[in-house]
Amino acid sequence: MTTMLDVTDITPRACCAPLVREPLTAEEAEQLAATMKALADPTRLRLLSIVAASEDSEACVCDLIEPVGLSQPTVSHHLKILTAAGFLTRSKRGTWAYFRLVPGALDRVSQLLVAS
């Protein structure tokens, strides 16, 4: 009685598909990681959403405290991180700080994540 053996093709093949666009550089990856770290917090995402939904995409810190249920210093800390990451700009009017969404700031994150 003859036994049939399965034969496995061991012909060398390229293991990876070729790149279809330029990958992130090390510097771009560092910047994107810092940006995404700023977004990786539920409170900061809510604050960004509130500012973006406000008239002229601008809100006073005094209007952001109650919706997130945190103290003014804590809200200011989160806004400072979002400002440093380039999502918001800050201007002072009297005793209050106003934060405005930077046009296109969210677009640059989504563009990096979408395959071209």
UniProtKB/TrEMBL annotation:
Lineage of the species this protein comes from: Bacteria, Bacillati, Actinomycetota, Actinomycetes, Micrococcales
Record's protein name: Helix-turn-helix transcriptional regulator
Organism, as annotated: Microbacterium jejuense
Keywords of the record: DNA-binding, Transcription, Transcription regulation
The UniProt record lists the keyword Transcription regulation: yes
PANTHER family in UniProt: ARSENICAL RESISTANCE OPERON REPRESSOR, TRANSCRIPTIONAL REGULATOR, ARSR FAMILY
Residue ranges annotated for the HTH arsR-type domain, each copy included: 24-116
Keyword presence, Transport: no
